[in-house]
Amino acid sequence: MAGCMKVYELDMEAWQWRLLPCKGQAPLSLVMMVPVFVEGQWLVCGGKSYRQMSHGFFTFDFSSQSWSEAGLVGKPLLPRIHHMATCHEGSMVIVGGMEPSADPIKRLQPAETVQQIRARPAAPAADEPDLSARHNGLARGLRSMRHRSLLTDATVLLEGYRYQWPVHRLVLAVASRVFRNMFEDTQQTGCNQTVVLTDLTPTAVDLLLDWMYDDFTGHLSFIQAVDMFWAAHKYNVTELQQHCERILKVYISCETCIQLAHLAMACHSSTLTQACTAFHERLETEEESQALAQELHAVLFPPPIPPPVVSSHPVDECPSHPLECASRPIDCCSHPLLDDFDEDD
């Protein structure tokens, strides 16, 4: 007898497979089926288990890690194998393959129908109104006012550039406590305030403001992700920093690991540091990568700074203090490590 389907998860940091403790009744192990991923769920339809073709329709929810058999309405599905499936506008579309034949000699015949399976929309509860439309309308209104410079009460400038970004103080203050403190410290209520940013590129400022105004498209190149990560760290935009961490983890390679390790250590990013450490462990197992592994090890595991030497003479009387520079705290708000990356003009 065939067993039930099992779901494994690949840890992209440790590169190890892990069996998920799934809930619900999983379907029998299937062959010749094509699952698709639709809106956070894995949809499984058709296929063959042991010697029997399956006509069931199963879903696996990744958020709850649970299996369930969907109750379909309409014309029943015929069992199908060797088919193709894809996702289209939130539905599963099944085309091609073989299905049972009415002729007992043939047993199977080419499937002639295209099946589309769509989830029935759930109506919001009476005591819990759907406020997403109001939220989207408010976000669209703020974006429109920003692009038209309507009722803006602050201007963002970038040191070394002539660009100006008219903004709304309230939006920036909600998104970033650093901006909030800037506006509170100036004590210039009722007039247009000016905020000068440093150590950023014009593209990074554009993307940072897009994120704050909920106007962010999502895709970032490696250079953009680095600039955005630095901006999010410096101005304490936590969700954006976490988003960039997930992107930069994917970009870790032999060409980028040293630069990303420096960035992770300077910004105290445990997530990015763990990803670089996992990559370092992989390098140590490859003989041709030992030199790079040692260089990465030096960045991730720097030697501890020795404590200052207590002298019987005042420091001012000493001709030179050997630990004067070593005992100074490191300023992580400067931007020297990003000089290794290509910056936008």
Lay out the secondary structure.
Elements: E1 8-11, E2 16-19, E3 36-38, E4 41-45, E5 48-49, E6 52-53, E7 57-61, E8 66-69, E9 84-88, E10 91-95, E11 98-100, E12 108-110, E13 115-118, H1 132-147, E14 154-158, E15 164-167, H2 169-175, H3 177-186, E16 193-197, H4 202-212, H5 222-234, H6 238-251, H7 257-266, H8 270-284, H9 290-300
Parallel strand pairs: 14-16
Antiparallel strand pairs: 1-2, 3-4, 4-7, 5-6, 7-8, 9-10, 10-13, 11-12, 14-15
Helix pairs in contact: 2-3, 4-5, 5-6, 6-8, 7-8, 7-9, 8-9
Low-confidence segments: 121-126, 317-338
Mean pLDDT, all residues: 77
For the largest beta sheet, what order do the strands appear in spatially? 3-4-7-8
Tally the helices. Answer: 9
Q: Count the strands?
A: 16
State the shape: flat
Query: Helical proportion?
Result: 25-40%
Rg on CA atoms, Å: 29 Å
**What percentage of amino acids are in beta strands?**
15-25%
What key phrases describe this protein's structure?
alpha+beta; 18% strand; three-stranded antiparallel beta sheet; 9 helices; 345 residues
Description:
By secondary structure, the chain is α+β, with helices and mostly antiparallel strands. It is 31% helix and 18% strand. The protein has nine helices and 16 strands. Strands 3-4-7-8 form a four-stranded antiparallel sheet, with no helix packed on it. A hairpin with a 4-residue loop joins strand 1 (8-11) and strand 2. The longest helix is centred in the middle third of the chain and has 16 residues, at 132-147. The radius of gyration is 29 Å and the shape is flat. It starts with 7 loop residues before the first strand and ends in a 45-residue tail after the last helix. Mean pLDDT is 77; it is low at 121-126 and 317-338.
